């Protein structure tokens, strides 16, 4: 799996373009981490190890999943709280909360908040 972490929407758009040859592009929206690795978003910190394990399992069961990209977008708290931010207002994203994992280009293919602490739901989404 091709993994990239970005910190703004311009970097996200570049990463999506770079991964355009991939069969699937997953977008993981999460709270920005500080120097210690802790996010301002407690739900993001809670979901991170579950998501990571599910991604590892997916890679193992799909021979590395080289044709799949995962772009993690770390959003600063003040930007996330702004109801007019890019991620909330863009017609193809419509972000409501973090963490959110979604398939790029598919608004109905997403999980958010507490659903991202359920490995069965994550694995089911990744297999779509």
UniProtKB/TrEMBL annotation:
GO terms for molecular function: protein-disulfide reductase [NAD(P)H] activity. Residues 8-127 form the Thioredoxin domain. Pfam families: TXD17-like_Trx. Belongs to the thioredoxin family. One of its GO terms (cellular component) is cytosol. This is Thioredoxin domain-containing protein 17.
